[in-house]
């Protein structure tokens, strides 16, 4: 993918992450932190960002990737592999 052509979407994704993190911190301030996961040496903040990162982890076939890009409202029209 060309980073220049996806720049607006990248900025929007970053803005969404920022809004989500602020909402998470507001919830923690109101309700307190939850228990840490056993066996993981990670803070609650680290777990938040790990969850976000995992949402981007996937393995797609070429056919599925084309279908996914073609069905997006802001699709560039062509997908190059």
UniProtKB/TrEMBL annotation:
PROSITE patterns the UniProt entry points to: NEPRILYSIN (PS51885)
Organism domain of life: Eukaryota
Gene3D superfamilies the record matches: Collagenase (Catalytic Domain)
One of the GO biological process terms: protein processing
Peptidase M13 C-terminal domain boundaries: 1-80
Protein family membership: Belongs to the peptidase M13 family.
Name of the protein in question: Endothelin-converting enzyme 1
Record organism: Plakobranchus ocellatus
Record lineage: Eukaryota, Metazoa, Spiralia, Lophotrochozoa, Mollusca
